[in-house]
Design a protein that fits this description.
four-stranded antiparallel β-sheet; 1 helix; 35 strands; mainly beta; Methylamine Dehydrogenase, Chain H
């Protein structure tokens, strides 16, 4: 578990954490935890592949970002794939062939994005920078400073970039000049799981989850609060027990929102009011992903779960990737795909959960959920390398 401080820890709380760590170390050295109780990543099982997956192309972007838990994930406008690295490099490629179209150096410690609206590419940095590039040639349009570190990809409309920073601030930035149009703030807890979810535009509102366990909707034009709901009230005696972050980006289908919290639950909410339609106990720090019938989630211990969209009934659950630090799920064709800490991608049948295929994208961790564009799937590893895969469907089908 990766925990960060959203504000300075009090001396009292810091002492509690240090005492807990010392106690755990003492119990371990005294042999009170046997080898059988040690938790390690699950071994990969042998199976017969039923899908043919081919690597189409790959490209290096820049330096790796291992263990930093950044929100660097490829983005697309349909024809191109855009990707960035922690060392400030940003590149655009032809989505089909992988041909490099442009590459630039921003000299920023990039941590989130890119996001593209067809005209502008926007990225955030660990130092609280926001930079906009021309999608056509990578030319810098502007850069500005936001409140703090950006660990969620910005969300774009034709005129605005909406940015969630780690201090609980949600800002609307004018895409033409980089000036802030409005902002809203949620109070953050003393401790939070590292990472934040991107805001989502739903008609005339902006919806986002926060580290205090709340999901809130704001008026798109001026940031006025429309509603907020506590996804799952924090419980427990310690600050760590009470972690209830909504670190994932909410997903929207029609009039319904789907969200999941850490040490909490997955829920469906009404877009208009925030009313919880159904909820199930699941802990996750990754975004959920719906298809026509189900909503898919990965649990904090590496389980992959499918629930019905209508009622939240569990359809299937697979625990063969436990403690492999899997990414959020991505529907792809008739499958749902997750990546893991050793660079493997795993295809599960979306209807049954049966493992269908496995492919490796290098040896570096995959932190972000794969991206699907048309009939191809893209993944960026923490080593700074971009891969494109495609399912090869037999002609008889």
């Amino acid at each position: 578990m990766y925990v960060s401080c959203s504000r300075l820890l009090s001396a009292r709380l810091l002492r509690k954490i240090l005492m807990a760590a010392m106690t755990l170390s003492l119990l371990t050295s005294c042999g009170m935890f046997s080898d059988k109780e040690e938790i390690g990543p699950a071994d990969l099982i042998d199976f017969k592949s039923t899908l043919k997956i081919r690597k189409i192309w790959s490209a290096g972007i820049g330096d790796g970002s291992e263990f930093k838990r950044l929100a660097l994930r490829p983005a697309s406008d349909g024809a191109r794939i855009y990707a960035a690295a922690i060392d400030g490099k940003v590149a655009a490629f032809d989505a089909v062939t992988g041909r490099k179209i442009w590459r630039i150096k921003t000299k920023l410690p990039l941590s989130a994005g890119p996001t593209v609206n067809g005209r502008v590419v926007v990225l955030g940095s660990s130092d609280g920078d926001l930079i906009a590039l021309d999608a056509k040639d990578g030319r810098e349009l502007w850069r500005t400073t936001v409140a703090s570190e950006v660990l969620a990809a910005p969300t774009l409309t034709d005129t605005e970039a909406f940015v969630r920073t780690v201090d609980g601030r949600l800002s609307a930035i004018n895409l033409f000049d980089g000036e802030e149009s409005w902002f809203a703030i949620q109070e953050m807890p003393a401790l939070s799981v590292r990472g934040t979810g991107s805001p989502v535009v739903v008609r005339n509102r902006l919806v986002c989850g926060f580290d205090n366990g709340k999901i809130a909707a704001y008026q798109l034009s001026n940031g006025a609060l429309l509603w907020e709901v506590l996804l799952d009230p924090p419980s427990g005696r310690t600050e760590i027990d009470r972690l209830a972050d909504v670190n994932s980006t909410v997903s929207v289908v029609g009039n319904d929102l789907y969200a999941v919290g850490y040490q909490g639950r997955i829920a469906a909410l009404a877009v208009e009011s925030g009313q919880i339609l159904w909820a199930r106990e699941i802990s996750s720090y990754s975004s959920v992903a719906p298809d026509l019938n189900n909503v898919f989630a990965t649990t904090s211990d590496g389980g992959v779960v499918a629930l019905t969209r209508s009622a939240g009934r569990e359809v299937w659950r697979r625990d063969i990737l436990r403690y492999r630090d899997v990414t959020g799920p991505t529907p792809y064709g008739r499958s749902v795909v997750v990546g893991d800490f050793e660079g493997y991608l795993h295809w599960f049948n979306a209807s049954t959960g049966i493992l269908q295929a496995r492919k490796r994208a290098g040896s570096d961790r995959i932190s972000a959920a794969p991206l699907v564009v048309n009939d191809m799937m893209y993944v960026l590893t923490d080593g700074g390398k971009l891969f494109a895969f495609k399912e090869i469907i037999p002609k008889s089908e």
